[in-house]
Specification:
The complex is a heterodimer of chains A (about 210) and B (about 190). Chain A has about 210 residues and is mostly helical. Chain A is built from 9 helices and no strands. Chain B has 10 helices and no strands. In chain B, helix 1 (about 1-25) packs across helix 2 (about 30-50). The chains are: A mainly alpha (about 210), B mainly alpha (about 190).
Chain lengths: ~210, ~190
């Protein structure tokens, strides 16, 4: 088949195409993935009994705000990385800013605290399970986001895989906030970030083979 | 001054192609065909410059890039420069080809090259050149028949549905998935 024949084949009955495919696909996949993560959380864990009381604490909202801003940065990243030739612009800054802010707060908290309390602020009471639980909760989101991405056209597959993982991890962490008893910045800034990075690293490693088109 | 005029000419061309594509995305198949035709010439020049050492691969890669542009046309954002979108696709396909070739060359015993030395370049090229018809024939009926009826014979979706006994949505999905499967087979065959 020569190239002109191919062009005829492609153009014949090509028909209209819906716009905003990336936004539509990610809306659907994030909704399904979040529902999956919630269901998984409710079956494996439970909502912290003092959630209503926690919701009055600024530290709780600091944690939620931190994770939520990573979700938003991750969303921008996956949408842009799914379109050939789209620029990242300030997306890396949007990803780094909440991290740096949380680390700055963590350092301040540690400096201000009594030396004997510092280890407790860092390890909390759940450091052994926190990253793993976030990674587990991220699985349904990860699958859904990769499905959406696979139907689009990422031209930088490793970076796209990383962002998909980061988005899934951040959504999982957001869901995990409903269960997690920890509030201190040194804990959040390390163990939460570690949990979010697990799917991000998996995404980076799998990106090239899974997202090929 | 000359540079400005050249850039203006280039921008005008890009703008024209962009309008053709946007028309095509809205359902104007004739505009879409002109778009693909003109794009193929740009793709050929772009890829020929970058594949100077592999001239036999150029046309295959032009075809592969055209299929990719078609399959991924829903990812074009109207506000985005067309050249950035098309170049990113062409470059992705180019890198993919080079990676595939590197893998194949690693697997082949370098000593075998001696035996190939006297085979003429032309016949080698003819053998290496991929035939899309053949790849199309290998597709399962649920993909192949919708493509043949609506894309090669130019029948409407309704007519194709009547002839094959498939539903209209199955025809549409068959065309869409079939072209994706075709792209996947091209990747596998090289």
């Amino acid at each position: 088949m020569n190239t002109d024949d191919l062009i005829n084949l492609l153009a014949t009955n090509a028909g209209p195409v819906k716009a905003h495919s990336a936004r539509r696909r990610y809306t659907l996949s994030v909704a399904c993935g979040t529902a999956g993560a919630l269901a998984l959380m409710l079956s494996l864990l439970r909502i912290r009994p003092d959630l209503a009381a926690a919701a009055h604490m600024p530290l709780f909202w600091l944690k939620v705000g931190f994770v939520l801003s990573l979700v938003v940065a991750g969303l921008f990243a996956v949408i842009r990385l799914s379109r050939p030739g789209a620029r990242l612009d300030r997306v890396p800054v949007a990803m780094a800013a909440p991290l740096l802010a949380m680390w700055a707060i963590a350092v301040y908290v540690l400096i201000e605290a009594d030396p004997q309390q510092r280890l407790g602020l860092f390890l909390g009471s759940t450091w052994k399970v926190c990253p793993l639980l976030i990674a587990i909760l991220s699985i349904p989101v990860f699958i859904a986001v990769l499905w959406a991405m696979k139907g689009l056209a990422p031209t930088r597959p490793r970076l796209a895989g990383f962002s998909a993982g980061l988005l899934s991890g951040a959504i999982a962490a957001l869901v995990y906030c409903l269960h997690c008893p920890e509030l201190d910045a040194p804990f959040i800034g390390f163990w939460y970030v570690l949990g979010i990075l697990i799917p991000a690293i998996v995404g980076t490693l799998l990106g090239r083979s899974l997202l090929r088109w | 001054m000359q540079r400005t005029t050249r850039e203006e000419g280039w921008r005008a061309k890009e703008e024209r192609l962009r309008e053709l594509l946007i028309g095509g995305l809205a359902g104007d198949n004739a505009a879409y065909q002109v778009f693909l035709k003109e794009l193929s010439a740009h793709l050929r020049a772009f890829l020929r410059r970058r594949l100077a050492s592999l001239p036999d691969e150029v046309e295959d890669l032009v075809q592969e890039s055209l299929i990719a542009v078609h399959n991924q046309r829903h990812t074009y954002d109207h506000g985005q420069p067309l050249s950035a979108w098309v170049q990113a696709i062409a470059r992705y396909k180019l890198i993919d080809l080079l990676r595939r070739r590197a893998a194949v060359e690693l697997l082949t015993d370098p000593l075998d090259d001696e035996g190939d030395f006297f085979t003429t370049e032309d016949s080698d090229a003819a053998l290496a050149r991929r035939d899309l018809n053949k790849l199309l024939d290998e597709l399962p009926d649920r993909h192949r028949l919708p493509i043949i009826h609506t894309k090669l014979d130019g029948l409407s979706v309704q007519e194709a549905a009547r002839i094959t006994g498939m539903s209209e949505s199955a025809i549409k999905i068959g065309v869409h998935r079939g072209l994706k499967a075709l792209a996947a087979r091209i990747r596998g065959s090289a």
